[in-house]
Amino acid sequence: MSINNFSKVVIVAKDEWRYWLRSKLAMTVLAIGLLLTLSSVVVTAITMHELSHARHELQTTSDKSFVDQPDRHPHRMVHYGHYAFRTPSPLSTLDPGIDAYTGNSIFLEGHRQNSAMFADQRQGTALTKLGSLTPAFIVQTLAPLLLILIGYSSISRERELQTLSYLLAQGTSGITLIAGKGLALLSVVGLIIAPLAVSALFTVSAGESLLAVTSFVVGYALYLTVWVLLILLASSVFSKNSGSFTALAFIWILLCIVMPRVASTTAATAVPSTGKIETDFAVKAELRKLGDGHNTNDPAFKQFKQSLLEKYNVNSIDELPVNFRGLVASESEAKQTDVLNQFAEQRMHAELKQTQVSRYFGWISPMVAIRSLSMIVVGTSIETHHRFLRETEQLRFDFVQGLNKVHIEKLNYQDDMNRNANAAATQKARVSADNWKILQEFNFTVDSANIRTQRSVPAFLQLLLWIAVLVGSIKFVGKRLS
């Protein structure tokens, strides 16, 4: 583009801004957009800070509560359990992602794999499930609508006022006119993105990577650029403002409201997953085959018992130098965990496949593309949640096996067997509370910025394809503008 043409583009953009400044509707919409973005950034940041502080306090309280337990039988502590809390990532102040639905803490105990708890959406009302007023929701869903209200008449207005032919006769080409209108709309995009970008930069001081912040801001800039191009294309194609607005309103409903639902429904249909009740029954059926770890006489442990007698070269379990009940508990927990992990991996594999199928819809809906990109870059995607589940499960297993080791080495087998004979026997079948200091410090962090950025590449490509197709369409229409 020559300097002369660029100056014309700037002049058109300035003229468009003069029109908006005279228009009460345009300025009202712009003010509402900026106010919504700013308020959501502040409110969400405060909420996430409070959540982070609360989860840290709860984790500390849970650790102290466990360690402060009195002398007990070690298996009682296995069932007493422990909590693991996940603190939010710095960028999650802008996009909580699936964390609002999946939960942020897990109760760890023996023989069970519990699901995450305390999801915000599960605790909210039906209205909150329509979409929380987070910065991500505002920019993904409401900002395109605000841009439509501001720019739907950009070109069609010139036709209705019969000034288009005058502008073209003065030497302003159709492409230059559209580019000028587009520059004005892009400046509005800059105003909407600015609070988001500033807030994202603040997360760097909280430990977030500059690469992740840059990817986040650039992703949203590309997304809103797609909507600017859609608005320009519709306004160029339709000769009347009413036609342009109707078409853009329909496109907004289709791309922002309908397509995300179609994507999730299609994913659930294409990759069916077993229901919770059916899975629970299947898990219980498999666990029954392993025997009852609380019953040392269960036939399932007959071979295990014989191998121990041969290993220690003794004739009966009473002669073992360790507690047989503790060994059975440890062996049972290991086998149960293998089964539980097998079903958990199957479930997570199905969830990941469903997510991948839904992400393919980013090629036909920029809303799906930016939603995927945002959650991945922020660290609130399904991949991060699955890693949280795997790490907490490893924490649970180590915690339970640590107590089983205490059971094996610190408690006499005969005392263990006679623990219910009387009060004195019960007291004797306890171990010192010093043994509860086995908890590992749990600090979950999201994947590195490089990994998150690599995962978001398909979503970036989807947005770039949208931009390329729309730019080509606008060039085609612009050359025929009359």
Automatic annotation (TrEMBL):
InterPro entries, sorted: DUF3526
Transmembrane regions: 25-48, 137-155, 183-204, 210-233, 245-263
UniProt keyword list: Membrane, Transmembrane, Transmembrane helix
Keyword Phosphoprotein annotated: no
A matching Pfam family: DUF3526
Keyword Oxidoreductase carried by entry: no
Protein known as: DUF3526 domain-containing protein
